[in-house]
Amino acid sequence: MRTLAIAAVLGLGLAVAACSEAERRDAGNDLEAAADKVGAEVKDAVDSPEVKEVGAEIKDAAGDAGQVIKDAAKGAAEGAREGAAKVEAESGDAAN
């Protein structure tokens, strides 16, 4: 969207260069109005409930992923302890 706005401004700038002073003023006013409109639309989009909901969902998903990783690490540690205890027990049986 930003690229489109920049391209529009450049195109308008080239067109204005070939115009009279009055036409340049009008084009400048039109450009300012368009920039204000785009700015307002971007602000509305950022403040929209949909964008805020997506942000909340991303935050929840990140929290869920963190919990899954934490649980997996805990399970791996428990498995390692159980495996070490089993090897130790088997080693003790073999020594007897």
TrEMBL record:
Residues 1-17 form the signal peptide. It comes from the Bacteria. Keywords: Signal. This is Cell surface protein. It comes from Phenylobacterium kunshanense.
